Amino acid sequence: MSSDDQLKIFGNKLRNVAISYTLRGTQRPSMQTDGSYFIQYFSVDGLSPISKHILFVVDISGSMAGEKIRHTQVALASILRTLKPGDRFNVLTFTNDVYKWRPKFVEASEGNIASCIRFLMLLQAHGGSNIRKALLGSVKAFQGVSSGYRSIFLLSDGKSTVGSTKPSIILRSVSRACEGTIAIFCIGLGDDAETHFLSSLAEDNEGRYLQVDPVEPTAVTQLGEFYERRLNPVLYDLHLKYDDRVVSNTSVIRKERLGYIDGEELIFAGKVSHRSAGDSMNMSVSGYNAEGLVILDKPLPLSRRPSEVSRKTRRSVSDESGDVILEKIWAILRVEELARRAKLARSASDRISAATELLQLSLDHGYVTPVTSLTEPYSKDKRGSSWFNLTRVELPFEDQGISIPRQLPNPQLSPPIAQRLLSYPGSRVFGDPHFVIDIPGCNLTICFDVQQRQGTIVNLISDPLTGLDVSGEITEDALSNVNSDEITSLFGRIEIRSSIHIINITPSEIILDTKRSLSWTEPSSIKIGTIIVRLVDRGNLTISLQDGVTLFIQRHKRVQHPTFFDFALANGSSLSNRADGMIGKFHGKASVNPQCELSPHPHRTTLEYDHRNIPVRRRSNKLLPSSFCWHGNAEDFLGGPIERYVTTDPMIAR
Q1: pLDDT tens across 383-424, in order?
Q2: Using CA atoms, how far apart are residues 83 and 227, in angstroms rounded to an integer?
Q3: Between β-strands 183-189 and 209-212, what pairing exists: parallel, antiparallel or unpaired?
Q4: What is the β-pairing status of strands 266-272 and 247-248?
Q5: What single string gives the DSSP state of each residue in 114-161?
Q6: Which residues pair with 427 in a beta bridge?
Q7: In sequence order, which residues have a C-beta less than 8 Å from that of residue 338 and are 6 or more positions away?
Q8: Angstrom distance (rounded) from CA 89 to CA 76
């Protein structure tokens, strides 16, 4: 049906958008833009399937008796025979408890497949259903699997009767455990399957959902086709990057994916930050297959020619709205992303931040979301028609994992985790490493970048009088040399030493005095001597030292990329006048009230600091637009070569 036909039939009831599409016979442009927003359709052909780790999770509770369990056995036997050489698999069954067919994943050899099929054919439905325990156990089964495409294939009716049975709690805990590293595909068995729960579980974890009626003679065929079509990855750990000169990469929706399934089409949307002089821009997609890193570079046209959809629907949009189609598509995708982020947030600050942005976006575009509701006012408009108003929800949606305050907070007072270190007064190091220093007594913020090779250890704080010493070990990003010769280095390990104690912070654990450790997965608080160590959640660590010095460390865990840390010194006033290090030298008492003066110039701004004239330029912060720093050369600010702060003192390993 064309948009014109839709307008004739529905008239003014179709107020915002009319959709026109065909299934075959058209070649859609890979990118559409209206100058402010863009939408891109991404697909790739010619790549060979890659091996995968797949865990089949089978519900054998009493509700699965009869046709459900019989068709599950036959379908899984058929699917197992299609596993490719190089695939690794396992089977987990659950009732009141959980049972694994093999302790670890095994190769998809003929012998293992035949043995597993014999095991499946002996299964009998009985007992209750503890879905939460089964799914959390499934996630744990992937411990030690560090690469490749990882997926869970769940076959169940979705009815949980044992343990935690509340769907919202199960969804939240499982998605948090996955941490965006495991895809979950769900098969709902029977017309009484818990469709909303199972489809949400798949959607939250980059999977797909299919409901099958076991009574249907085509049930086994449907399951086989679903598996063959949906679990055929050709790339894993997919990353997309646009030309920074044209596109605001921070606005792009879901530019990182677990993988790419052969034949599917991915949709990306974002904001255009600046139109270049040319008619095209560069886009880079990277991922991994059996041969290693694959980089797909593609020039995209920047034609502003409106799409067929936007041309034909302009008549149904008010004159003052202009080209709003792409903006609304971007807003819809952004709303979905924020709703998921709010639901899965680990801290109140993250949840409030996501819910606040979600609320504002909902009100701006008129979308009903978990934080808005439709209300009909008592009065009617001049045409005699009632129009619904979109208002914010007054009561928190605890069941959906979203809670917002009755009064919207100032975003600067409740920044998300990604922004916390940026808003701390003092000194912060984040990213590759990017140093941001609030110079005491100057009311100025400076910033500089430091790039070093893998394994280099740099000294951040060294104070011989207080005994405090903080060092960071560099780890390089796997994609460091994709688009340029510059390396992308991160802090992959941090060591904090006092005069008595040593705290070694690694991607897997926090080691205290080489004798005991804290796991990142378990929030805790411990005191060693005069040092208090608090792990607030899975990524935020606070270390309070004597004399009021407080350190913040933030862990960033990523798929197929090195885990890295951000670091902040919140209060450095207690450091002595002999403090040194890339951060410490700015906070020692001898550095307080230094000579610093900014001299603006049309072509070059100069900062007079510590009797040196340093060329600087103003740099805005993408994550915290209200802040900025004066960026200059690292060696100019440090007063010497970076190598002076490179230490040969190895970090203590457990």
Answers
A1: 444 444 555 443 333 333 333 333 333 323 233 333 444 444
A2: 10
A3: parallel
A4: antiparallel
A5: HHHHHHHHT----S---HHHHHHHHHHTTTT--SSEEEEEEEE-----
A6: 437, 569
A7: 354, 355, 357, 358, 361
A8: 12
